[in-house]
Amino acid sequence: MSAPSVVGIGFFKDSSLECFPEQAITVIPSELPTLQAYQMLIDGNFHSAPVWNESKSEFIGVFDVFDMVIHMLDSLRKSSDPDADIPDAASMSFLQLLTAANKVLPDIASSVANISQRHPFVSVAPDTTLIEALNQFGLKGIKQVGVVDVASGKIKKFITISAVADLLLQNPDSLSSFGESTLKSVGMGYRDVVTVSSSSPAIRAFELMEKHQISAVGVVKDGRLVGSVSDSDVRQVVPKKGFKMYGITVDDLLKQIHKDEPYKIVAVEDTATLRDVFMLLCQKQIHRVYLVQDKDQMKPSGVVTFKELLSHLLSLVKRLDIH
């Protein structure tokens, strides 16, 4: 076993969760009406929060801004005559739409948290090792892991994907287990890419993410991959005052998300090494890169996510540790 690999294994086995910063946390009661729960997020400048069920004395899920978008669309679909309740949707802000949707189907926070279990709540104890905690990100829908005090049941902090990226960026030797493997050599990233046209209604992008249970869709224009819309983007832009979901195109949405550079895309070819792709994700603080066979044509042939690379890295670390 080479020395760098030993360094990588030791980092994951010996590091504690103290390396992650603490942050402000808000908890939403499961029986709180959705409008009040959403307002709690906005007032506290949060994009998501754990949902606490008092009768069960446990966290039952995560209340998320993107789930509120899906909840609103679902409520309007279930209405027998949505236009009767929302006469001019294109002129209404998201908060106004949400208020109208709540009149159609009044609901509570727990219902939104359980829409599709996109964001289940998972936690670890403070004395959990780094590798055990990071393994939780391999579960579907997990974007943050709570560190919960066993005695009090209170959340001490959340480990987020961004925090993991920062940690690994500060400790590049931790990626040594990747070796010189490329995306092509391990067969990673090859899959159909769900895309939406830049001229399509913005809500089409949200519907595709929900339908396929994915966190992002590629944006195409004239057959070329030109951008991406993710649930993280949605969380950032929806709470902005006056944001409208109806009456805007994907192009309009991208310009609201990235004012300075609406059409930006990070793509790599399959000859890129796993280490380089992972470092690229960490440096740019993004969750995915698109795979293309020719950067001039920019036709997507796959997508590689941070979580996918992290799971592969941890499997290599475990394998080397056993040997």
What does this structure look like?
This protein has 323 residues and is an alpha/beta fold. Helices cover 40% and strands 18% of the residues. The chain has 14 helices and twelve strands. The protein has helices at residues 3-14, 34-43, 65-78, 82-85, 94-104, 109-113, 130-134, 161-170, 183-186, 202-212, 231-237, 250-257, 274-284, 306-322; strands at 28-29, 48-53, 58-64, 123-124, 144-148, 155-160, 195-197, 216-221, 224-230, 267-268, 288-292, 300-305. The strands form four sheets. It has a three-stranded mixed β-sheet. It has a three-stranded mixed β-sheet with strand order 4-5-6. A three-stranded mixed β-sheet has the order 7-8-9. Strand 2 (48-53) and strand 3 form a beta hairpin. The chain is flat and about 55 Å long.
Categorize the overall geometry: flat
Helix/strand structural class: alpha/beta
Unreliable parts: 1-7, 82-86
- Tell me the strand percentage band: 15-25%
Helix content: 25-40%
The quaternary organization reads as single chain
Q: Quick one: how many beta strands?
A: 12
- Numbering strands along the chain, what is their spatial order in the largest sheet? 1-2-3
Taking the sheet with the most strands, its summary is: 3 strands, mixed
Helical segment count? 14
The value of Rg in angstroms is 21 Å
Q: Give the SSE order as H and E letters.
A: HEHEEHHHHEHEEHHEHEEHHEHEEH
Nearest-integer average pLDDT: 85
**First and last CA, distance:** 9 Å
